[in-house]
């Protein structure tokens, strides 16, 4: 009889854990859907909706966007190559001049990428009517303001050891 009670108890625990897994997976799936809504490819849809772009404007913006992303990818690849070359210098005898050249190159690539992004948005703005431009300006200001309020590490997830304000953790139970 005791064995029967134990089996019922284990069976109940297994069923409860299965239900808990289903609930947890549902929350994760819904959270994943929310993350998908904020991906860059959805930025084009937001832009189209908020600015109420015409079909012709949508095509022009898509074309500009495709060219822009190709250009940005080139900058990112070049930056990654320069960064890799810089980090490879750790294990060898190197001159400070080589480090200076590579870090300067990384800075130039970052400047070029920022300029390309500015030019890209200026081109999109130029496609807009005056009413759309006013909405575009407000939208860009909102995006920039949200980016500056991103919290630790500019809105990215904190490192596991980040304590928020940099201090030690609070004492536990008077210890």
Characterize the structure shown.
- With 175 residues, the protein is an all-alpha fold.
- It folds into two domains: 1-34; 43-148, Four Helix Bundle (Hemerythrin (Met), subunit A).
- It is 75% helix and 0% strand.
- The protein contains five helices and no strands.
- Helix 3 packs antiparallel against helix 4 (96-127).
- It is flat.
- The relative contact order is 0.06.
- The chain crosses the membrane at residues 9-30.
- Residues 143-175 are annotated as: Disordered.
- It comes from Roseivirga misakiensis.
- This is Periplasmic heavy metal sensor.
- Keywords: Membrane, Transmembrane, Transmembrane helix.
Give the arrangement of secondary structure elements.
Elements lengths: L1 H36 L3 H11 L3 H34 L7 H32 L2 H19 L27
Helix pairs in contact: 3-4
Find the count of extended strands (DSSP E, 2+ residues). Answer: 0
Number of domains: 2
What's the helical proportion of residues?
over 70%
Elements, N to C (H/E): HHHHH
On the 0 to 100 scale, the average pLDDT is 80
Tell me, what's the shape? flat
Q: Strand-residue fraction?
A: under 5%
Number of helices, counting only DSSP H or I runs of 4 residues or more: 5
Protein name: Periplasmic heavy metal sensor
Keywords: Membrane, Transmembrane, Transmembrane helix
GO cellular component, one term: periplasmic space
Transmembrane segments: 9-30
Give me some keywords for this one.
0% strand, mainly alpha, 175 residues, Metal_resist, LTXXQ, Four Helix Bundle (Hemerythrin (Met), subunit A), flat, 2 domains
Brief description of this entry?
InterPro entries: LTXXQ (IPR012899), Metal_resist (IPR025961). The protein has 175 residues and is mainly α.
